[in-house]
Design goal:
single chain; mainly alpha
Length: 278
Amino acid sequence: MSDRPSYFRVLMTFARNSLVREMTFRSNFLIEVVSSMSWVFMNLGFYVLIFEYTPMLGAGSGWGKYQFFAFLATTLIINSLVQALFMTNADEFGEQIRTGSLDFALLKPIDTQFLVSLNRIQWSSLGNFVVGLVLLAYSLSRIGRAPSLAAMLLYPLYILCGVAILYSLMFTLAATSIWLGRNQTLYDFWFYITNFSRYPMEIYRGTVGTPLRWFFTFIIPVLIVVNVPARLLVRPLDPRGVEDWLLPLFAIFATVASLAASRWVFHRALLSYRSASS
């Protein structure tokens, strides 16, 4: 029998333990779910109000009311997965370094990055995942054009790519806690950067918008996180459109590069770690 741990079984154990922990305080769990979903519905109401005054988000952008709601649903799905799986763990990583509890993670016979990334799952964040799925189904039914089979098959793949890119950025910033001791400002920087991913890239135009679009697509690839899967569903692929094929291909490359970069930074940071007993 192999001595290597089953990562899937470990993940399921983390998920079960996290659920038991949250169900121990059911009232708090329900309050977190309601609070998170209330924020979502307030944002949805804001965009409903915007589309009372305009049929299109940006002239010629192709993002009408229900196309944008599908985009918003994709944002909810990706962000809810990131928040449920990784956000709490990234936030607690700095505490593990300061208190020395990271020593115990390093001693475990399992990959350290896997352990600290998925140690705790925040089940209450998955309420927005359900809202996103419902909003996506409703939006697609109102667009009047069913997505192609290829788009429906590729959509989950690019959802995972978006989650991986946001995770990579989050844990790259979290790993700097080893060097800085406390990096709350850098960690907050993750929220500022990911705000760019909440809007269609077509709105970034002009003297300021075009450089921002280029930078946050090809240097820090947060714009492709939501744009690529959402565009696959609501906009037919143009065989002659270079961007329609370039962005999905680049999204795969950006995902692999982002994961590799975060892995490299994490291990480089661990080389500088000094245990609590040293």
